[in-house]
Amino acid sequence: MKKISIKINRKYIIISIICVLIVFIYLLFNRITYGNNFKVFTITSSSDTMSKIAKASKDGESLDINSAELNGIFQIYPGESYKVSKNIEIEKVLCSIDNKYIQFYIPSKMYGINTIITIKGKITYLNDNFTFTPEYIKLGKVKIPKNIIFDKFKEIDNENIKIDGGNIIISSDILPIAVDDFKLDEKYISLTFPKHDEEKEVDNSNSDEDIETSDNKQEVEISQEQIRKNQLQSVYNQLGTVYNSVKTDKEKAIISTIRSVVNKMIADPNYKYQTQAAGVKSEYAKLSEDERSDVKNSILMNMSMSSLRMLNETFNLI
After folding, report:
1. Cis, peptide link before residue 134, omega less than 30° from 0
2. How many CB atoms lie within 10 A of CB 237?
3. Most CB atoms within 10 A, among 20, 23, 45, 309?
4. What percent of the chain has pLDDT over 70?
5. CA separation for the pair 314, 264 (Å, rounded)
6. Cα distance between residue 36 and residue 94, in whole Å
7. pLDDT tens readout for residues 210-219
8. Which residues 6+ apart lie within 8 Å of 98 measured at CB?
9. Distance CA 318, CA 309 (A)
């Protein structure tokens, strides 16, 4: 009888351990797949927000952007779900700003499991770089080591994004427009854009240090001209994707005209594009609100940041 009792006790111990493991796995799974109680976010039209940014940039002013406006912009990038790796897929990005912290909510699918990645931290701006310092990172309700996310960022093939210690450094070159200053405030972010001088003073000093030989000048001019041609060629190629993305004939006509102007700028570095650019803006203004929004979103989704910046300098649509 004693031997039977020992066997029974062992059996109960094994069953108890299995039950505890099942409960633990269930609770962990329930916390990781936390998403049924998803926070409700307000989202403002990205088209309206981009118009505000474009105007502030053009006038060299400051602009405050709240969470709802940021969320509208986030819906453009990448527009659809984005695969970070073979087994990790981001569905969208949302955020909230509170007490000078920004919190990102990222509904995702990891190894077929629906979850939400939450990242809370602060953003500072110095020397043309944005520095994001995470306070914590959660998978569902479970806090995870920061290096797991950092390792994924290291896999991103983008010279404008890098990891430095416990910070994510993002170059301002990733933006389609120039920024002078950035601040994360209580409930919004504050952007300051550079002033645009109508007339720039030219230094006509003839000191020996400022004089280059004509041969060197010619080499520099050829090099700069080729760089600009390459950049314009990228703009032209990406506009082809935009053309296929927009919906109505009027939208396609505007993108076609822009491509035509860019093509002429490639062929002739001295091409006077201003009149046609003004014509594009005039035709763009005649589009319906939905058409304007579609054009902007198609451009933002299908063009690189450097191409967007060059396009904006010429046509100022974004």
Report:
1. no
2. 13
3. 309
4. 73
5. 13
6. 16
7. 544 555 545 5
8. 186, 187
9. 9
Among 51, 117, 109, CA closest to 82? 109
The contacts found for 265-272 with CB under 8 angstroms, 24 or more apart, are 265/232, 265/314, 266/229, 266/232, 266/233, 266/236, 269/225, 269/228, 269/229
Instruction: Name the residue with higher pLDDT: 96 or 48.
Output: 96
Strand, coil or helix: 155: coil
68-111 pLDDT, tens digit each: 988 888 876 655 556 666 777 888 888 999 989 999 988 888 77
DSSP per-residue codes, 265-315: HHH-TT---HHHHHHHHHHHHTS-HHHHHHHHHHHHHHS-HHHHHHHHHHH
Residue 258: helix, strand or coil by DSSP?
helix
| Residues 106 and 116 sit within 8 Å (Cβ to Cβ) | yes
CA-to-CA distance for 138 and 25, rounded, in angstroms?
Answer: 17
The better pLDDT of the pair 79, 263 is held by: 263
- Residue 190 forms beta bridges with which residues? 64, 183
Pick from 105, 73, 111: nearest CA to 91: 105
pLDDT band at 164 (very low <50, low <70, confident <90, very high): confident
Tell me 61's DSSP state.
-
pLDDT of residue 207: 44
**CB 300, CB 77: distance < 8 Å:** yes
Beta bridge partners of 126: 129
pLDDT digits (tens, 9 = 90+) for 106-126: 888 877 788 888 899 999 998
Whole-number pLDDT of residue 312 = 82
Write down the pLDDT at residue 197.
58
* Residue 65 to residue 190: CA distance in whole angstroms: 6
For residue 98, what are the CA distances in angstroms to 108, 170, 186?
Answer: 23, 22, 6
DSSP state of 100: T
